[in-house]
Structures are given as structure tokens and as C-alpha cells.
Amino acid sequence: MIKTVIVTIHGQESIGKNMADLNRRLAGEDFTDKCIFINLRYTKLWTVVNTLPWARKMVAKYVAARLNGIQHQYPGARIIVIAHSNGTRATRIAMDMRLKPKKKWPQFKIDDLILLGCPIKRNYKWSRHPETSVVNFVSSNDMVVWLARFYGMGTAGRNAFKHAAPNLKQYFVKWGHSGFMKHYIVIAHCVRSILEKAL
């Protein structure tokens, strides 16, 4: 029986190379030998296209459907999602929409969520998802997240979430928007801590 599934989700204007690299590197660690790794990918989206509500919804619904499938394929497994940039926002939208039964979105669970380069609004309250432990890496020199404001996005990946919550931890780093692989050891330590607590 698979105990843990680690899912990586990339952002816009990308085909997910960095997240695929992160996925492969984590899979090579001795502490992840009992994990299954899935690198979730979707079509490359230009930023201007992703400002359209239907495009944002499309990506979020795809994420929801894939996570639903993963949960059914590995029943009872712990689900850890590591999302970058637009992947964080798509995951958040999917999580919110599954709470609206009239919308009939795919149901899924996320036990642990790691946010990298997060363009979610700072006033978002993670307390609405108490079943998910959230780690937000906040990079003060993330210029992509800073520019995201002009596209109607948020800056939680640069300035942190405003509202504290029992299920939210925020760590302050300085690795820009896509430089997290140069600081891979930090993410690996985070994943290791999650797995050790789950034992």
C-alpha cells in the first residue's frame, strides 16, 4: 500500500521543467523511498491569457480532476502537493470550489501544501481549509510576484499572508521566483519534516 503521494504543479508560461526537476530530485532521496511521485502538467499559458477568468477556471478544474484521480488511485495515501506560481493559485481555486456542492467540482484531499512563488492574495484565509497543512515560502526579491499585482493576482509569495492560521507556516527566503532549485535542500528538509511527522 502506498503511504504518500507527492504531486508537483507548475506555473504559467512554463511546461514545468523546474517542477519536474524538483520531482526527480526528491524521488532520489532515501527518505522518500516509500513515496509515489507525480508531476502534474498542463498546457503552457501566456500571462495575458491567464488573466481571463475562463482560463484560470480551466486550469483549476484540471488540477481538481487530476487530484481526484490520484486520490482514487491511491486510497488512504497522504497527499503532498508542491505548487509553484500559477500552480499555487489554481490549487487554491480548486480547493475553494470543491466546498461549493452546487458547482459539482471534482472532490479531492490535500494533506500538505507547499507554496513556491505564490501569487495568491495576501488576505486569503487558510483557516477555511483546516484539514490541509500549508507552508508558504516567502521570497522578498520575487519580482514576478511583485508584477503579478498588475494582472489581478496577489503577492503572498513576496509579502506573506496577512492572516495567521493554525495550519499555516511561512518561511522567509531570498531566492527570487524560480531560483528555488538552487536552494533545493530547504524544500527537501520541508518534505522530510512532513513525512517524519506523518509516521
Structure description:
The chain is an alpha/beta fold and 199 residues long. The protein is built from 6 helices and 6 strands. It has helices at residues 17-27, 53-73, 86-97, 143-148, 156-159, 184-198, and strands at residues 4-9, 35-40, 78-84, 112-116, 133-139, 168-173. β1 (4-9), α1 and β2 form a beta-alpha-beta unit. α2 packs across α3 (86-97).
Short structural description:
The chain is of the alpha/beta class. The chain has helices at 17-27, 53-73, 86-97, 143-148, 156-159, 184-198; strands spanning 4-9, 35-40, 78-84, 112-116, 133-139, 168-173. The chain has a 6-stranded parallel β-sheet, with helices on both faces.
For this entry, give a set of tags.
globular; alpha/beta; 199 residues; six-stranded parallel β-sheet
